[in-house]
Amino acid sequence: MERECLLTVLVAMLGGSAIAACAGWPAALPADPGARSLERALWRRIWGPLVPAGFIAAALCGWALAEPDPVPERVPPAVLIAAVPFFFVAARAAVRAGWSLVRDDGDPDTVTVGLLRPWVVFSPYLARALDDSALEAALEHERAHARNRDPLRIWLAQIAIDLQWPWPQAQSRLGQWIVALELARDEEARAAGVDGADLARAILAAARMRRSHSLTPVAALIGEKSVLEHRIARLTSPMPAAAKRIESGRRYILMLASGLLAAVGLGTIFGEAAVAALLRIAA
User: Fold this and answer.
1) What are the φ/ψ torsions at residue 160 (nearest 5 degrees)?
2) Residues forming a β-bridge with 113
3) How far apart are CA 69 and CA 120, in angstroms?
4) Longest C-alpha distance within the chain, in Å?
5) Does 233 have pLDDT greater than 70?
6) Distance (Å, rounded) from C-alpha 199 to C-alpha 206?
7) Higher pLDDT residue, 241 or 118?
8) Residues near 34 by beta carbon (within 8 Å), at least 6 away in sequence
9) Which of 17, 22, 62, 264 lies at a C-alpha separation of 20 to 30 Å from 227?
10) pLDDT confidence band for 53 (50 / 70 / 90)
11) Confidence band of 194 (pLDDT split at 50, 70, 90)
12) In 3-state terms, what secondary structure has residue 86?
């Protein structure tokens, strides 16, 4: 069997098994030190179940770097059969990701759209219903979405959750993050000088005018209706001091990159023996 084909099968089987094993982690909310810090913590929880699969894929890539092509071992049919469900999950995620980019949900609400170059689409009906201060508050909220490339992050998060299908805990983590995302952008707008009461009035006006909930990768002004009262309560309360301290994510990126490089090195050294043993067991 060609080395690259076996690599793909093993990544699907072993990596998919790792995702399936980790995706059922509880979706309990962490402590709320501030909306922006909470959003970052929940963002990492979306990707957490995929991290072991990433290490497995890195180790297998290290194995492929040292393995001759074609692979001398005979690949048992059980390995191919075991990988089929995980290929299906990956294909489903790819189709849903593509469909979310091309579907048409009709006239847009006030949202931020665009994956690589996000821009704000502001409803003219909402603009006419707001005074200048509320209008500027709503625009600053959407500018915060654009600065953080939230449409792209929403699209990537949906792909990550689709790879964890069908675990309901994964969908719960996505819903919690979407709520925290809107709270974080409210907080960011207030940190930029927006009055919370002005933004609350804009959100209430948008909620009254909203006709449907979009499933495309956009960052909307009002988010889920079920959290509307919670958002308004936060906006009309003083912003907590903890909200001004933002946790940096650089150390997590460095730790992840270091782990992946270590996995590649271990795969180069021990991968051949491990894969040969796996194929013998499957036979």
Assistant:
1) -60, -40
2) 119
3) 50
4) 73
5) yes
6) 10
7) 118
8) 187, 240, 242, 243, 244, 245, 246
9) 22
10) very high
11) very high
12) helix
What does the block give as tokens for 169?
């805990």
User: What are 39's two structure tokens?
Assistant: 């959003």
Q: Which residue has the higher pLDDT, 59 or 112?
A: 59
Burial of 35 (0-12, 13-18, 19+ CB in 10 A): buried
- Name beta bridge partners: 219: 112
Identity of residue 260:
L
Angle, helix 150-162 to helix 132-147, in steps of 10 degrees: 50
The neighbour count for residue 121, using CB atoms within 10 Å, is 15
What does DSSP assign to residue 206? H
- Give CA–CA dist 170/56, Å, rounded: 20
Q: Which two tokens stand for residue 5?
A: 């084909």
Looking up tokens 């847009």 gives: 108
Most confident of 51-55, 210-214, 276-280: 51-55
C-alpha–C-alpha distance, residues 229 and 231, integer Å: 5
Closest residue by Cα to residue 158 from 217, 225, 212, 117: 217
Radius of gyration of the CA atoms of the chain, in A: 23
